[in-house]
């Protein structure tokens, strides 16, 4: 884990510098402050989280504390007091600040610190501390093991391809003497910095491993809340997918039902078409066929009274067969010549006399005229009669 942390540290530092150099932190601070002012006064303190830096200064054997950005300072106390008394004095000086948000910075006087402005290549931005160690012998009369130092990037314009930075160093003896006093008082700090007016400069000369360790219980709560938010997001996405699947299944069911209804409608349409075709066929058949009753009526009208039929047949092709007896069978051909329903009347076989009735027995064939041929003739005959 330590090797992995060492490997990721340059990348993390690069991300931190990019974040601090972007306008987003200032915007978020302003935005959160504006939102906080909309809350009730009792709630504003609860939502005013974040690090609160308090600057600790030592001058003439006395300690003094003030918040960063505020000009007023606390009442001083002597470094000769015992540890509980100094801790009580510090607690009174930082009263009102949440212990989880409290950050203490030891501020050094400007005269005890050496500051050098440097112009470095852009590539040095990711390794400023290493560059500071390399430049220490060239920019200061000290060696690296004689000072505590830090290197910060300066805001503002710089030549193309280079960055402006500031090397800040102070002899270790100066810092160690004050750290010993704080250690004797049982006070742990978070940074060693410089004061510019009523604010800290923003560097940290504190040796590694000396800064106090903060255990923030709210971090666990924030992580738990973030995990819960991620879980709720996943659940909402899963619910959305589930609802979409249900809607898709419902739509598929409706489509299947509509498809079944369409099949039923298609079958009903086909049955209707078949029924219409059958009824049309019967209508056409009725129209294209001469009724047998009409043929019988026509024959009754035309054959003489001394003639009768013993058998009469009509097949599907319109062939008519007649068998009977008549006093003069030969005259039947002339009687049927003027028929509008029959044509091609002719005897089949020979005409024979029946000894019992003294009539001539005959067998005759004829063909039913097509309705298209029969009806116009009938119409013309009716017109002539008129």
From TrEMBL:
Pfam families: PilN. This is PilN domain-containing protein. Keywords: Membrane, Transmembrane, Transmembrane helix. PANTHER family: DNA UTILIZATION PROTEIN HOFN (PTHR40278:SF1). It comes from Dyella mobilis. The chain crosses the membrane at residues 221-241.
